[in-house]
Specification:
The chain is an alpha/beta fold. It folds into 2 domains: 124 residues, 3-Layer(aba) Sandwich (Rossmann fold); 98 residues, Orthogonal Bundle (Arc Repressor Mutant, subunit A), CATH 1.10.10. Helices cover 42% and strands 21% of the residues. The chain is built from 8 helices and 12 strands. Helix 6 packs across helix 8. It starts with 6 loop residues before the first strand and ends in a 5-residue tail after the last strand.
């Protein structure tokens, strides 16, 4: 039986922000726990099961980037959705967060409505991946397959561990092979209008996606001065 109430861990050392997050999440009937440091977060993640981690980058001791990396390196937690909190306009933090395996991020100060919408989207996608359904598979050559319903990517039958953002970008590109998507179109396609993500962050996500796809990474082509496209499957 799937769990009806999702359990969220807030990892935030600023008491006022932690209290604000608690308030809004509890109002939505989530089960909520908190950690004041990276070390405490890793300890709790090792002892309890969570459905999503709300993770601040700037933490005392082990920072959010390192926490994210360790979660992704652990076989038991590598699929755990991670939403990072970062200070507004700190592009390097955003890029590092996405590169370390975060599924999404939100900048401070944040809108509670936007935060809750991001959390719901990540939980929904995570549940879709767990549940699976009737298969809808796109084959792209080099052994690369995208299972849209199960939210899985496989190369020669072996699953490739992608973040939610990486999967969404790959799915978007594959929806129209040979069509060139600008960086702005990619942002709008995977997050909607008004989403605050830099074009450089898109490049970082594409770079990480190619790396994880290995030999199949060349299917994603850069169109200089425009954006990206994926090659049409060939026989």
């Amino acid at each position: 039986m799937p769990k009806e109430v999702s359990k969220i861990l807030i990892v935030e050392d600023e008491e006022d922000i932690q209290r604000l997050l608690f308030f809004h999440l509890i109002k939505q009937n989530y089960h909520v726990s908190s950690a004041d440091s990276g070390e405490e977060a890793l300890k709790k993640i090792g002892e309890e099961e969570f459905d999503l981690i709300l993770l601040d980058i700037m933490l005392p001791g082990v920072d959010g980037i390192e926490v994210c990396k360790r979660i992704r390196q652990n076989e038991k937690t590598r699929h755990l959705p991670i939403l990072m909190l970062t200070a507004k306009a700190e592009e390097e933090d955003i890029v590092c967060g996405l590169d370390s395996g975060a599924d999404d991020y939100i900048t401070k100060p944040f809108s509670p409505k936007v935060l809750l919408a991001r959390i719901k989207a990540l939980l929904r996608r995570s549940k879709q991946k767990e549940d699976g359904s009737q298969e809808q598979i796109i084959s792209l050559g080099n052994g690369l397959e995208i299972d849209l319903d199960a939210h899985e990517v496989r190369i020669n039958g072996k699953e490739v561990d992608l973040t939610v953002s990486e999967f969404d970008i790959l799915s978007l590109l594959c929806s129209r092979p040979e069509r060139v998507f600008s960086r702005d179109q990619i942002i709008e396609g995977i997050r909607g209008q008004g989403f605050e993500i830099t074009r450089r962050a898109v490049d970082v996500l594409i770079h990480g996606l190619r790396k994880k796809l290995g030999d199949a990474g060349h299917l994603i082509e850069t169109v200089r001065g425009v954006g990206y496209k994926i090659k049409r499957p060939t026989e």
